[in-house]
Input
Amino acid sequence: MSKNHLGEFEEIVLLTVAVLADEAYGISIIDEIETRLNRSVSIGSLQTVLRRLEKKGYLESNLGEATSVRGGKRKRYFQLTTYGKKVLQETKEQRMSLWNAIPDLSIN
Amino acid sequence: MNSERYHSFWAIRFFRWYCHPDFAEDLEGDLYERYSRNSEKSEQIARLTLIKDVIKLFRPALMRPLFNSKFQNNTSMFKNYFKSAFRSFAKNLSFTLLNVLGLSVGLATTLLILQYVKYEKSYDTFHSQIDNIYRIQYNIIQDNQLIVECAAAVPAVGPALADNFEEVEKFTRLFPRSGIISYNDPEKGLISFREEKMQITDPRVFEVFDFKLLKGNPKTSLEGLNKTVISERAAQKYFGNSDPIGKRILYNGETEYEVTGIFENVPDNSHIKFDFLFSFETLNQQSNNESETNWGWYDFNTYVLMKPGTDIEEFQGKWDNYLAEVRGEDWEHRNYKSEFILRPAKEIHLHSNLLQESEPAEQGDAEAVYFLTVIAIFILIIALINYINLSTAKSIERAKEVGVRKVMGGEKSQLIKQFLVESFLINVLAMAIALMIIAISWNAFLNLTGRDIPLDYLLSADFAGLVISLILLSSILSGAYPAWVLSSFKPVSVLKGKLLGSASGNILRKGLVIFQFSASIILIIGTLVVYNQLAFMKSQDLGIDIKSTLVLEGPAVTNDSLYGQYLETFKTKANQISGVEAVSAASNVPGDEIFWTRGIRKLVNGAVNSLTVYNMGIDHDYVPTFDLKVIAGRNFSKDFPNDNERVLLNRELAAMLDFESPEAAIGEKVILGRDTMEVAGVLENYHQMSLKNKVKPLVFRLFESRSFISLKLNEKNTDNIIAELRGPWNQIFPNNPIDYFFLDSFFNKQYESDQQFGQVFTLFSMLAIIIACLGLFGLSSYLTLKRSKEIGIRKVLGSSVNNIVYLLSKGFLSLVLVANIIAWPLAWFIMNGWLNSFPYRIDMNPLFFLAAALSVVFIALLSVGYQTVKAAITNPVQSLRNE
Output
C-alpha cells in the first residue's frame, strides 16, 4: 500500500482546494464544501486538517492582501504542491482500479 | 455591526489568548468574515456561531506553546526528557515494572498507615475548646505507694475547683451507667434493650464539649429530676420515626425518665461514648446529695474547662496546696493521700491507660502508633532503595547515551533534570497504582485496624496534598543519586567502551541491600515475638477455668428485696437442664474490670495501715464452678450460716496483709470497709484480668450479685441449653432481655488490640520482604546478565552447573548474612523493650533469630535462584556466539 494514505476528509479538503484554484482560503473552502457536498464543517476541524496537510507537504500557503471584510486581517491562500497533486492522482487511480475490478453483476 | 463589541467579545479575546501567533491572523480573519456575514442576518446567531467556532478551534494543533517563547528551547527540551524517559521505560519494560510495583506497594502502605495515624490523633479534636479541657485523674497513695490511678474522680472535686479558682471556667461530671431501658410503645408493646453506654451528667456537658443537641434546649434539657436526652441512634431504636420528646422511658424497671432532647450521635473518634444522658439531679436525689459532696466515691469522669492561657503546672501546684489544706485532716485520719491531677483531654485516647477508662477496649496506644509510623517509613525507604539500586545498576547501559548527550553539548544539569524527570514519571505511575491499591484494600484495612476511619479522609484536600508531596519527595529521594551518578560519566572513557563499575557505587548498592534485608529481618523477628507473646498469654494457665462457660448478664429489672429468692430459684431450675454442670452468680467474671474497692486491714491492737483492695461478691458455688483452688481453710458453705460475716482472700492479699502463710490467715479477723470479717479461706491466685495485668489483691464475700450468672456446661450443643433457659428466665425475671456471652471469648477480647497489632505487624513485614525481594530479583537478574559471557567461558572450561549457581549466589547470600548480623542485636533490643511492658512475658528465644535468618536466606535464594540457575544451564554457545 502506498505510504501516502489520505483520510476521507483530507481528500475532500485537497480536492476542494484544487477546485477553488487561486481562491482557496478558510471560509471559501468551507462554503465550497457546504454547497457541493451539503456537509457542514467547523473552522476548527478544517484548520487542523489544513495545517496537517501543509506539514505533510501536500499544500503550501501564502498570505494575501488585507481587506475590510475581514476586519483588516489577511487571508491565507492554499495551493496544491506538486507532491500534493501526485498524491491526489495516486488516490484517484487506486479508487479507479478498485472500481474497474468490480464485476458487472454486483452493481446495477 | 458593531466592531467595538466584536473586539471586546469574550470569545474573541479567549481566541486571541490561546491561538498560536502563526495562525492567529488568518484564522481571526476567517472568524470575522463569518461573523460579519452572519450578523447581517442576526447578531444573536452570529455571536453563537462565533462561540461555537472558537471552542472548536481550541485544539492542541492550533494552540500557542505552554510557555513564553523565551523559554521555548527549554520547553522542547523538557518534552524531549519525557520522550526519552518513555523510550527507556519501554526498552526496559521488566525493570520499569519492578520499579513501579515496588514503589506503589511502598507508597500505598505509607499512605494507609498515615491515614490511620491521622485518625488516631484526631480523637476528641472535634471539640472546639479541647485545648483547654482537662480530665481529673484520681490517684490514691498509701504508704508512699501509688495504689490507684483512676480516670474517674470523686464528685466533690468539680465544685471544689470551680468555686475556689477563677482559672476554672466550668466543670462537668459524667457518671457511667448500664442497665435495661424499656419503652412501652402504645402500638408495638414493650421495647426493651440492655444499654451499656449511658451517662448521668449535668447541662454543662454541652458547654464544655461540642456534643450537638438537635432537639431540646442545651441549658435546660438536663435540668430537673428524671430527665434524659438521647442520641439519634437511640431515638430511632426505641421510637422509630415518631417524635421522642415528652415520651417516658424506664430505667431498670424502676426509674422513669422523660425524654427532653436528642443529640447527634457521638462521633466515632470520641474517647467517651454514650447514647443516653440522664439528669444529674436525679442522682443527687437518689444519693442524698452524696453525688455532690462525697470525697471517696470515685466513679465520676470530671472535666474542667480552664481559662485560655492558664499555666497548668502552676495551677496544679496551687490546687495541690489547696487540697492539702482542706483534705489534710481527713487524709491523716484515714491514712491515705489522694491526688487530683489535671490531664489534657486531647491526650486521653493515645496516652491514658487508667482504671475506669470510658472506652477501655478502644483506648489507643501511642507506642503502637509510633511503631507503625516507623514501619511505614521503613517500607517506603526499602522501596526507594529498590529504585536507586536498579537504576544505578542499569547505569552502565545508559552510559553511552550520557556520553553522546555530553558530546553533543548536553550539560550536567540538563542530564540531572532528565533523570529526575524519569524518576518523577515512575513515581507518578507508582502513585496511580498505589491509589488503586488503597481503594481496593480500604475495607480490609479498616477491619485490620478495627477503626472506622471515614472515607472523607481519602477525599480531603489534605490527602491530595499528601499524595503530591509524597510523589515529589520520593521522586527526589529515589532520583537524586542515580541522576548524579549517571550525569557524572566522562564522555571520553564511556564512548571508548571502557566499562565502569565504580567501586563506590558497588559498595553503596551492597550497603542498601544490607539495609533492606536488615529491616526485613527485624520485622520478621518482631512478628515472631509478638505472636509468641500472644500465644503465651493465651495458653498460660489462668488458675481459673473459663472454658465452656456461658455467662448470662444479670437481671437489672427486679424486686430488690426478693432478688435472693429469685436467684436461688433460677439457679435450681438452670441446674436441672441437662448439660449444665454448675451455676454461680457473681459481681464479676474473669475479664471484667472490678470497680468495687474497699480498705482492708488486720484487726490488731495498735495502728495498722489499711490497704485498698478489690472486692468481689460471689455465692457458695463460685469456687467449684470455676474450679478455683482453696489453698488454706475452706470455701463458703451453706453449713455455716454465719459465712456472710466471713471472707475469702487470694494468696496475693494474704501475703500483702503480712500473714506468714496462707494457713496463718485462717480464722483471723480483718476490717473490710466498716465491717469486721473473719477469714474463712485463702484461694490460689488466678488471673481475673488478662496477662497484661498483674494479679491484684482480691477479697471475696458472700453477696447476692446481680451482675453475672455463669453456667458451666458439659455439652457442646449450647443452642438447646439457651433455648431451655429462656423459659425459667422469662418466668422469674420478666421484662429482662436475656443477654449472654461465652466466657473464653469474652476474656480473650482483652487481647483483641494486641491481636490486631500482631496482624498489622505481620502484614507490613511481609510487604517489606516482598518489596526487598523484588529489588533483589531485579538486581540479580541484571548482574547475572552482565556476567553471561563469563559464565559461558567458565562452562566451556568445565565448570558444573552447581559451581556456577554457587558462584553467582554467593555474593547475594553474603549480603543477607551481614544483614542478619546487623539486625539481630537491634531486633533483640527493640523487642525485649516491647516485652518488658508485659508483667508475664516470654524470653527472647534464639529460635526466633534463626527462623528469621533462615526464612530470609530462603526467600533471597528463591529470588536470586531463578536467574542464576537459568544463567547456569544456558548453553555457552548462546552467550559466546556473538561478539
Notes: The mean pLDDT of chain B is 87.
